[in-house]
Give the backbone structure.
Amino acid sequence: MSNEKLHICDHPLVQHKISLLRDKNTGSKEFRELVSEISMLMCYEATRDLPLKKVQIQTPIAIAESSVISGRKLAFVPILRAGLGMVDGAMALVPAAKIGHIGIYRDKANSNSAAEYYCKLPFDINERDVIVTDLMLATGVSAIHAIGKIKETGAHSIKFMCIIACPEGVNALHEAFPDVEIYCGAMDKGLNEDLYITPGIGDGGDRLFGTK
Ligand code: URA
């Protein structure tokens, strides 16, 4: 895919925290904290192109020619359940954003199809810049389904943010939606026979919520 649509966050803090995340001895509490911290740092990158407008601010000393974000509204849409772990960190940076939720599971009988079990999006999502979050971009099936659903509302500014991606997922998502920019913290080797990212972090949902 073209490089300008794929952003790998090479910041040392992100890379360091991803190494801790990968460690199978990292427990759920630390895992959740790391996911939140990484998401905050990545959200900083994913919002780098928000437009600014000039304002004048009276400081205690003088008038400053300064800048504020020019009225664009954001929405985060985590893909349940692992994408939920990324919301806190992102919201810490953009507290006025709204949050939608999409619950999707991969159909075990057909690894190429996604089954949606929940969807609740902000009523004005079509007027917002949308950032879809998931811990992993593996096959791309869930991301493609979620973004397709959001596009049906008329939303046209959509980014996808994940912590670990692999070439299979990135290529599939780019093929389905060439306009969607992908932000990830690491690009791993690929998928194993169980469709897990290798070396990856294991099952992100289980590690976040301590379910295994
Ligand atoms: N989902 C996960 O939780 N882990 C993977 O490696 C791939 C998908």
